[in-house]
Amino acid sequence: MQDFSSEFPLAAALLPAGRDPKRPVPNPAWAEKRLLRCRRCSGGSGCDGVEAWSLYGPGEAITGFDAEAWQWEREVCGAWRERQHTIALRKAGIPPRFRDCRFATFVPKNESQAKALDRCRSFAEGFRAGETKRGLFLLGAYGVGKTHLAVAVAASLADRCRVRFRTVPALLAEARSAIRGQRDAADPLLECCDVPLLLLDDLGQEKNSDWVWEQRFLLINYRYEQELPTVFTSNLAPEALQEKIGGAAMSRIWDMCAGVAIDGEDHRKRSR
C-alpha cells in the first residue's frame, strides 16, 4: 500500500479507513496543496479563487474523499462565499455600518415591525430580475428599522442581481458635484436609472431646489415608466412627503410600490 501520510499528511487524513491498499489515490499532491491554502486562509483573502477563477474553480475547498467514486470531494468554501458577498455589498453601495443588516438580525418590537419584516422577506424571496415590477415603500418615524429592512432586501439579492443602495440627499449631492466637474466619476443618477433593483433611503430629507425637484422626478419617473422595481424609505408622513416631492412623483410611487407602514420607538435612543 502506498504510504504517503508523511509527505501528504492533510490529504492522508481525509482518506477513508480500510480503503483498498491496491488502488492508487488520485492527485494527493494537488489535494495537499489546496488543503494547505485552506489552512492559511484568512477569511477568504488568502485563496487564489477569491477574486478570480482559479484552475480548479472559485474558492474551492477539499472536504473529503469519496471512496465509491474514488475521488476528492470538493465544494466552494464558506469563507470564499462570504468574501464574495462582502464584495457584492460594497459594489451595491451599502455603507459599512449597515453591512450586517439581515432579516435574521431584525428583531421586531411590535406587530407593525413584524408585518414589515414578513413583507420585506416575501418581496426578496419572490424577486426575479426582469420580471418583478413593483417595489416597496417603507414609511415610519426615525429609528423603527426602515433602513435595516431595506438593506436586508439588498443583502439577500446582491449575490444574484445588480443592486444599488443610495441615500437620496447624498445621491443628489454627488450628482450635483459630478455636473459641476468636482468629481471624476460618472453621473450617479444615470447609474441608478437601469439597475435591476434600486433602494432609495431617506426620501424627503434632501433640500429642495428647482434642480433637485427636476432630477428627483426624472429618476422616479424613469423607473416608473420602465417598470423597474424600487424600494423607497421615508420618515415623513405621506402628506408631508407629497408636499416635499410633489403630487406627480408621489402618485407614481404609490403606483409602483406596495406601501409598508412601520411604527415604534427610535431604537437608536434605546441603544445608547
Tell me what the structure shows.
- This protein is α/β, with parallel strands linked by helices.
- It folds into two domains: 74 residues, no CATH class; 178 residues, P-loop containing nucleotide triphosphate hydrolases (Rossmann fold, 3-Layer(aba) Sandwich).
- The chain has eleven helices and seven strands.
- Strand 5, helix 8 and strand 6 form a beta-alpha-beta unit.
- Helix 9 crosses helix 10.
Topology, element by element:
Layout: H1 9-13, H2 28-40, E1 60-66, E2 71-76, H3 78-92, H4 111-126, E3 135-140, H5 146-157, E4 163-167, H6 168-179, H7 188-193, E5 197-201, H8 210-225, E6 230-234, H9 238-245, H10 247-256, E7 257-262, H11 267-270
Parallel strand pairs: 3-6, 3-7, 4-5, 5-6
Antiparallel strand pairs: 1-2
Helix pairs in contact: 4-5, 8-10, 9-10
